[in-house]
Design a protein that fits this description.
single chain, alpha/beta, globular, Ald_DH_N, 15 helices, Aldehyde Dehydrogenase, Chain A, domain 1, Aldehyde Dehydrogenase, Chain A, domain 2
Length: about 475
């Protein structure tokens, strides 16, 4: 049992003053994993005020980039001995299979920190330029960042949501999702051990009310949010009205395009991972598969067979490929989408449903739907569960048009044996990120969306520069004889 009775304010534990407690439930067993406090409005204000004071007075924002990188690398080293504990905790919090947890919350999570440090070293904080006058162009930290994470990748999200603004020189107030608040404490403890100056990092768990107070707080200069498009729109409106930066990674309904020359044996693993990885609880999921009509039946049956082969069960078991949905409410929502799609005329090549041998936990087997109209609700709305729609297309032009016929633009993929043809399709799709012949989430290079999938980028140099402002310092004497008297 993981019991937390404190908040982290400015890097230090502080006993929680509120009566409200978050109960974390294991979605595979429906047993309680632990508890964490929910921050009160006054505690949120204190966290922001502490961060703002640290931004004004702490040496953190004045540190040279290499010194900030050294603290982040020391944090990573402090986490290393506890990684297996963290993996097991994340699996208990949200149900991701332990094998996938190692890939996401060890390899990719720690890898993303190392990539962030490498990117930071490539940033020129000052650059002298010649123009009408000589000038110095500087990159300076934005200020206090409210970083708000979703539940579908808690440890990974905590790391990059904290690390990228910190490397920019900002102070951070981090709000983990109420479903998965516990691992964030371990990140904060590792930063304290690494020597992060007091005041720079706070952790305030809580639900929507805590997030709303953070976003609206006048002491917050930027918001770094991952979550639903609906919530992202509300955050964007508040930030726009108050001239705050907003980096928003929102929903997706990404398309994987299978051209008629694709090697199906090589393609199916990418389609399966893209549709069902993390039990489909992935904003970048390729949950629409657009297939050349001549290969449609073959791909539909291949995906159905892949879905049937996935082991659904105890996420702590090394053999498990698909864990539970995060909550009973989420499972009900996914089942409702599938029922509505079947009523609209979709046909289940693999019907999914609740496994008979798993009476406890919020499990669903993966669903593969054929005969889906791309304009139907199941093909247009983000489901966030193990459901994939297979849609026939006539040619490359039709595939591009159908992929773009969506409010979203976060991710996508194309499968073809012709690299130039695949690249032409990739260039044509209106989306923020894309993969050729695979399903890839690359934490070395910028990731983000267009349209209703958000704005801004995480990862890479671009992910750090999101939290830096440009200042131009003009040297008036270099203007020669021009003067005003």
């Amino acid at each position: 049992m993981y019991e937390r009775h404190e908040l982290i304010i400015g890097g230090r534990p502080r006993p929680a003053g509120g009566a409200e407690t978050i109960t974390v439930v294991n979605p595979a067993t429906e047993e309680v994993v632990g508890h964490a406090p929910s921050a009160t409005p006054e505690e949120v204000d204190l966290a922001v005020e502490t961060a703002a004071a640290a931004f004004r007075e702490s040496p953190w924002r004045q540190f040279e980039m290499e010194k900030r990188v050294a603290v982040v690398e020391a944090m990573c080293a402090a986490l290393e001995p506890r990684l297996e504990e963290i993996l097991r905790l994340v699996t208990a919090e949200m149900g991701v299979p332990i094998k996938a947890s190692r890939a996401l919350h060890r390899d990719m999570a720690i890898g993303s920190v190392r990539h962030a440090c490498a990117a930071a070293r490539r940033i020129a904080v000052e650059e002298r330029r010649d123009g009408q006058v000589q000038a110095l162009v500087r990159l300076e930290p934005t200020g206090v960042v409210a970083a708000i994470a979703p539940w579908n990748g808690p440890f990974l999200q905590a790391l990059y949501k904290i690390v990228y603004p910190l490397l920019a020189g900002c102070s951070v107030v981090f709000k983990p999702a109420p479903e998965t608040p516990l691992d964030a404490y371990l990140v904060a403890e590792a930063f304290a051990e690494a020597g992060l100056p007091d005041g720079v990092l706070s952790v305030v768990p809580g639900g929507p009310a805590v997030g709303e107070r953070l976003v609206a707080h006048p002491g917050v200069d930027a918001v770094f949010f991952t979550g639903s498009t609906e919530t992202g729109r509300r955050i964007g409106a508040v930030c726009g009205a108050n001239m705050k930066r907003a980096v928003l990674e929102l929903g997706g309904k990404s398309a994987a395009i299978v051209l008629e020359d694709a090697d199906l044996a090589a393609t199916l693993p990418g389609l399966t991972s893209g549709a069902f990885g993390n039990t489909g609880q992935n904003c970048a999921a390729t949950s629409r598969v657009l297939v050349a009509r001549s290969r449609y039946d073959e791909v539909l049956e291949g995906l159905a067979e892949s879905a049937r082969s996935l082991v659904v069960g105890d996420p702590q078991d090394e053999a498990t490929g698909l864990g539970p949905l995060v909550s009973s409410r989420q499972r009900d929502r996914v089942e409702g989408h599938v029922a509505a799609a079947l009523a609209d005329g979709a046909v289940a090549a693999e019907p999914g449903g609740r496994p008979d041998d798993l009476p406890r936990g919020w499990f669903l087997r993966p669903t593969v739907l054929g005969s889906v109209d791309n304009r139907s609700r199941v093909a247009q709305e983000e489901i966030f569960g193990p459901v994939v729609c297979v849609i026939p297309v006539e040619d490359d032009v039709d595939a591009i048009r159908t992929a773009d016929d969506s409010a979203y633009g976060l991710h996508g993929a194309v499968y073809s044996e012709d690299d130039e043809r695949a690249l032409a399709v990739a260039r044509a799709i209106r989306t923020g990120t894309f993969s050729v012949n695979g399903f890839l989430l690359n934490s070395e290079l910028p990731f983000g969306g267009v349209k209703a999938s958000g704005r801004g980028r995480k990862y890479g140099v671009e992910g750090i520069r999101e939290f830096m402002e440009i200042k131009t310092i003009n040297f008036a004497r270099s203007a020669g004889s021009f003067s005003m008297r």
